[in-house]
Amino acid sequence: QVQVVESGGGLVQPGGSLRLSCAASGRIFNMNSMGWYRQAPGNQRELVATISGGSTNYADSVKGRFTISEDGAKNAMFLQMNSLKSEDTAVYYCYFRLRASLTQALRDFWGQGTQVTVSS
């Protein structure tokens, strides 16, 4: 079984920064990709950023402000969020797309979500 744990959310003022962390543990055979989604109240879950083989992809709304990175040795990833705006307020979810064994299909494993609130 694979466990995913997130940390790093909180309350920050507009213009401030936060760093989210996410780590996977357990039976991991092959990591394919990973990323972050967010969901604000009343909105659908939206993609924030992904990383795969060193290549990154960002939502237009966060380009130039957010940076996704990974630590392959630790099966961990991070989301550095700078110049935060009130519209970034949401619950942030991380995921890892991986195979738990050679014979298993790719699956997404999700974190529990962490609240990010940007407010003065």
Structural summary, described in words:
This protein has 120 residues and is mainly β. The protein contains no helices and 11 strands. The protein has strands at 2-7, 10-12, 18-26, 30-39, 46-52, 55-58, 66-71, 76-81, 90-99, 107-110, 114-118. The strands form 2 sheets. Strands 2, 4, 5, 6, 9, 10 and 11 form a 7-stranded mixed sheet that branches. It has a 4-stranded antiparallel sheet with strand order 1-3-8-7, with no helix packed on it. A hairpin with a 6-residue loop joins strand 4 (30-39) and strand 5.
Share of helical residues: under 10%
Decide which structural class fits the backbone.
Answer: mainly beta
Number of helical segments with 4 or more residues? 0
Question: Assembly state here?
Answer: single chain
Percentage of residues in DSSP E strands: over 45%
Secondary-structure element order, as H and E?
Answer: EEEEEEEEEEE
Radius of gyration based on Cα positions: 14 Å
Q: Which outline best applies?
A: elongated
Q: Which regions contain 5 or more consecutive residues with pLDDT less than 50?
A: none
Mean pLDDT: 96
Question: How would you characterize the largest beta sheet?
Answer: 7 strands, mixed
